[in-house]
Design brief:
13 strands, alpha/beta, 331 residues, binds oxa(dethia)-CoA, 4-stranded mixed beta sheet, Peroxisomal Thiolase, Chain A, domain 1, 5-stranded mixed beta sheet, 10 helices, single chain
Length: 331
């Protein structure tokens, strides 16, 4: 059996950091409201002339370095983004150009905040079916470019950033002592699970696009409704992921969730019976970076030594579409 191993990770945040207090100078809001409703204290914004592909490229080079993989070894780049540099070609091909890679394939995946989990599913399936051996998976966004600064209910919630992982095909490893039996004990992606329900298309969307208004448009969200669906859908997807692998909640070492709202994350952690020390939380510092939030969180916990080789990690996300998904990974 072929399994996708994650060889390394990297991330990048734009230099400019904006606190809630700074935002409150131009938006009718307060640090108290933003923190208490979402857990966000600050966010990073890309500089003028700094694009999604620029963020993605830095995260990608850091991930390649951490993985010890040369660009020449890559045969696929998947970039999860809802804020591409241009309508086409894909941001993945721009990153490919920046990396100096002229072979293999590159494309974007669009599932908004679930983009990284969707990308993980795509990359894992390419690897498992033998169509790719070494894959660069990126989540990168510049949501600051699609925010309506007169809509305080949305513009305070998002930030820019990028994260990446390098995945490689490997033969399923023999059992690792202490990690339980069989299939689940070896390293790599154990399973991915993705869902969508298009009947909620209008709950979280951008009111522009090439085919409709020929403008870029702005993000629109019914926050309260999205919140309600997030709590329900994430509760069911984490069970689906554990059940598919015959694992118990207590087997998990880490929850690395999409970082939209601390209250949503707390609710999922409570359901899993996980204490705060086992939940990677970056929403306070990064805000919601959509497809970039999971790889940014993952990278922070790997680089500061919290996540160790052999740990069992649950990744989960929900976003516009509505889309949602999860991935179980033995690091
Ligand atoms: O990543 C994709 C998925 N996205 C999400 O998961 C986001 C899900 N939703 C949420 O995180 C939360 O619903 C929000 C953080 C967006 C909002 O929290 P809430 O507790 O649902 O607040 P609300 O929308 O019910 O608004 C409560 C009040 C309203 O005032 P009234 O009508 O009660 O007088 C708003 O006008 O807060 C007001 N408000 C604000 N006040 C100060 C809304 N935005 C702001 C603001 N500053 N920025």
């Amino acid at each position: 059996m072929i399994r996708s191993e994650i060889l390394g990770c990297g991330s990048y945040l734009p230099e400019r950091c904006v606190t809630n207090d700074e935002l409150a100078k131009t938006v009718d809001t307060s640090d108290e409201w933003i923190r208490s409703r979402s857990g966000i204290a600050q966010r990073h914004f890309a500089a003028e002339g700094e694009y999604t592909s620029d963020l993605a490229y830095v995260a990608a080079t850091r991930a390649l370095e951490h993985a010890g993989v040369d660009v020449s070894e890559l045969d696929l780049i998947v970039c999860a983004t809802a804020t591409p540099d241009n309508t086409f070609p894909s941001t993945a091909t721009k990153v490919q150009q920046k990396l100096g890679m002229t072979k293999g394939a590159a494309f974007d995946v669009q599932a908004v905040c679930s983009g990284f989990v969707y990308g993980l599913a795509v990359a894992d399936n390419f690897i498992k079916c033998g169509q790719a051996k070494t894959v660069l998976l990126i989540g990168a966004e510049t949501f600051s470019r699609i925010l309506d600064w007169t809509d305080r209910s949305t513009c305070v919630l998002f930030g820019d950033g990028a994260g990446a992982i390098v995945m490689r095909a490997m033969e399923e490893q023999p059992e690792v002592p202490g990690n339980g039996a069989g299939h689940n004990s070896g390293r790599g992606v154990l399973s991915t699970h993705i869902h969508s329900d298009g009947s909620h298309y209008d709950m979280l969307y951008v009111d522009g696009g090439p085919s409709t208004t020929q403008t870029v448009g702005h993000l629109r969200m019914n926050g309260r409704e999205v919140f309600r669906h997030a709590v329900t859908n994430l509760a069911s997807i984490v069970d689906e992921a554990l059940d598919a692998n015959g694992l118990e909640r207590s087997d998990l070492d880490w929850l690395v969730p999409h970082q939209a709202n601390k209250r949503i994350i707390d609710s999922t952690a409570r359901k899993l019976g996980m204490n705060a020390d086992n939940v990677v939380l970056t929403v306070e510092k990064h805000a919601n970076t959509s497809a970039a939030s999971i790889p940014l969180a993952l990278d922070s916990a790997v680089k500061d030594g919290r996540i160790k080789r052999g740990d069992l990690i649950l990744l989960e996300a929900m976003g516009g579409g509505l889309t949602w998904g999860a991935g179980l990974v033995r690091w």
